[in-house]
Every structure is written in C-alpha cells, then in structure tokens.
Amino acid sequence: MLLSILENISFLNPYWFIGLLLIPAMGIWYFLQREKRYANLNLPSLEAFEESSWRGKLRILLPILRALTVAALIFALARPQKTLKEQEITADGVDIVLVMDLSSSMLAQDFNPDRLEVSKMVASDFVDKREYDRIGLAVFAGEAFTQCPLTTDHRVLKEFLEGLQCGILEDGTAIGMGLSTAINRLKDSEAKSKIVILLTDGDNNAGYIKPLTAAEIARELGVKVYTIGVGSRGSARTPVRRRSNGDYVFGLAEVKFDEDLLKQLSEMTGGQYFRAIDKQSLEQIYQTIDQLEKTKIEVTTIKRYSEEFYFFALLAIVFLVLEILLRYTVFRTIP
C-alpha cells in the first residue's frame, strides 16, 4: 500500500527530511539511558520471571513506535504531493480507408492459412500503429459496401476486420466499386491527408464503375491510393467452384492479377503499388505505408497535484496512540 501511495509522489518541502537524523539519535539516547531507567536486581534464580520474560523482550516495540511516529510526522511535514498528468494531443489528421477484397480467390492457400486471414491480421497490426488517425473499412467482391465508417474507435474497427469472410457478397472482383466506396467516405473529410489502401488479388471483372474512373475522382478530391496485389508467384490451391452447401472446392490454379491496373491507380493519385507474395512481404508493405504517411503529433502535458500528507499524518497518530496504549497497559511499570 505504501508503495502505491509513493508512486508519482513529489515533496514540496523536502528539507524536512533532515529531521530523519533524529531517529538514530533517539536510538542512541534510548540505549544510553536504558541502564539508568532500569535498576539491576541480583537474584539466585530467574524462574519466577520466566512467564513475564516475553514482556521484556517486546518492550523494544515502544521506542520503535516512537521512531515511526517521528518518521511519519516528518514525511507529512515534507508535504508529499501526487502528480496527476493529463495529456492534450493535437494531431494533423490522416483519414484512412482500408479496402479489402472478399472475392473467393482470397481463400487461396499460398498464404498460411489463406490470403484473407493473413491480410486481416496484418491490417489489424497496422491499425494498432495509427493510434490517432480515423480509419474506415470498405469491402468488395462482385459488389461493394462500407463495413465500418471512419472512426477513432479502433477496437470496433478491428472487430469488423476480424469478422470479414468470403461469401457474404456476390462473387467477383469489382475494384472500381471498392475504390469508389472508399472515396465516398473520404469526400467530405477535412483531414490534411486522405488515404486509401486497396488490397486485392484479382482482375477487375464486375461492377458498373471502372477503376480508372474511380481513380480520376480520387485525384480530384486529393485522395491518395496505395494498392496492394496479394498472391505468390506460380500456382496455388484456390477455390475453383462452390458446392450447393456453400463449401468451396479447391484446385491448383495459376496466380495472376492485373498488376498494370493497380500501378495505374496508384500513379494517378500519387500513391504506390506493392506486391505481396507472403506474410512477411505484406507486413513490410504496411510498415512502408506507415512510414510514408506519418502523423504529426503535438503533445501538451498538464500536471495537477493532490495533497497526500494526510496519509502520513494519520500514520503518525496511529503509531503514537499505539505506543501510549502499550506503555500504560501491557508494558506498564511500577514507579
């Protein structure tokens, strides 16, 4: 308990601690005066005093309690104050929308366990690093919608990320729809920096908005688009069809997607294109984006103080009262 009281404690009048030198002086005085206070009595046997010998041994508690009283009183006079810190944080806003592909090909197992699970995991780690940014989440397959609007409640955002799964949307890859959904969330943003991070593993083959049209709108609105193509090189076990019960049937398929399109989308908006062939490279990509889009943060620390001397004053009173009670009851001596 004492350690918790002393945590973040400062003393307004620390010079009172010089008074702690009184304690060893009191101890020396006590032992020098002990023989004068208690006369020697020579007896042939101590059998009569064996039952009361414990009182003699415990009598040392009296000077200890007196010393503790003085120490606690000195601590109280030193005016201990607990420092309570408050931080006011001013950040140059960065609004980010993550756009995640939920087409069935994201279940390809060239990542462990699959592309979608790894993408969710790495994106969640990225969110943790952007403590002061508003971040939203959009998803697409054959169609697109906003899964989570821009928010600073990253706990809720990560819950939405964790719950993503393939099959909740019509299958396909509507890159233009996914990008335009994210842009729609950013068009009214007053942030100095507006970012879209679009992750996909396929060719644009669905949707009524062309990806390049969406990129032109992004450029006009000052939205920077980073694109990430997910997929190893060569072939991978990929869903090739779906059974009537909803289960996917996997088969070996060549890994390919429209890298040229993703490069165009990024170049048009001042962003960059990245290729992720495994979990490690995907983590590195998000780290790079994190470095490229740093948030300027100003932290103002406000300190408040609360008086804590009453705790030590109370201790002094407790020790003093206990000493007096013991001195005139258990350890009472006959004059």
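The above is record 1. Record 2 follows with the same two-line structure.
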Amino acid sequence: MNARTLLVCGGTLLWLVRLCSAEVVFPPPWSQSLPKQTSQEWDTQMNSGTQMVPPNPGFENPYGLPTVSFTGAEVVPEVGPHEQIIPTWHISDPLGGTLTIKVPNNPDPDLYKLVFWQITADKSVTPTGDPPTTDPPGTSLPTGLPAIRWGAGTWYTYNGLIRIDPNPEFETITFQLVESTNISEIVVNTVCVPEPGCLGLLAAGAVVVGIGRRRLRA
C-alpha cells in the first residue's frame, strides 16, 4: 500500500468517524440527575436528505421520534469546521430557508420545559439576532455559554436556551436561515421541570457548567 493510498484511506476514516457522532460542545446547563430528560443529535450524511431526518443511533427520545427538516436546502460536500470535506445541509435558495426541529416530551402536565440547542454552522443560525421561534411559543433565556469558533474559518458552534410554559406534549423549533448557510451538526437536550423543588438542581447544574467554562478559559 503506497503513501497516496494510505492518505486517502486515512482521510476516509476521519470522514466516517466525523459522521458517526456529533460533538457535544456544550452540555445542557442543568443537573444530569434530573428525570424526564431527552437528548437527540444529528450529523449530516450524503444520503440523509433534508426532510424528517431521524436522530443518530443511540440518541432516540424515549417519548417519541424527534425529527429535523429543512426548506430551501440540499445536502452537499463542503469544507467543514475541522478542515476536511464533509456533507452539510446547505441553504441553496436565494431567499433563504428554514430548519425545523420537532421534539416529543413526557406528556405529564409539568410546570415548564427547558430546551437547550447546539448547532455547528458556517453562518449564524440566528442571522437577525432574534432567537428561533417555537410552537408553542417560548421565552429565550441566557445560557452563559459563549459560541465556540473552529480554527481560523467561519465555522462556529452556536447554542441557546428556551423555556416553554407550561410543558407541552411536544415543541417545534424553527430557525430562519440565510442563503449559503451550511450546517453540519445539531444537538438538542431538553428537560421537563415537574415542580419548584427541581429549581435548585437546575441552578446547581448551571453553576457547575459556569465554573467549568471559567476553568477552560483560564
């Protein structure tokens, strides 16, 4: 096996590894001990299409099937955040497009729902500065976690936190994207908060995340 073949095989292996799991850059800002949590992750694959994409294996929501769908998009190979060619969801419509994420919840009438999202893209997923819209409507909350830039390019991992009162059976999250946006990964974590007593656990989780981020920047 010559050097060229080894290089090609190595590049293919890296590409396949890149497809197998999303990078959870930001953990959800709450305690991992809380019940009624969900976790779902999506990586783009060339055969994934842009409509109703199931999550990565191993991240299925226990309350139903979460899905991702796009309008004005196609799947194309692009130079990704780690400087290798990867498939991305590419907004090709000159008028822009949308990303819609549907997440089922525990159907119990809980106090409220927290939705924490993370998206890796080469353009802002909130280009107007407004947070994504939700159905039912929610309130955007500060996360305390800054966006992470990858290398010297334009790729960032963005994040946001949304609260929906009261807890719905499912929520739909919609992002308005501009032309030529490329998205490689999507991660969504949620928790249904059943009672005020859980607020202490939420606060403790947020403090731990904040301390971890300060240490990383130190």
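The chain is about 15% helix and 35% strand.
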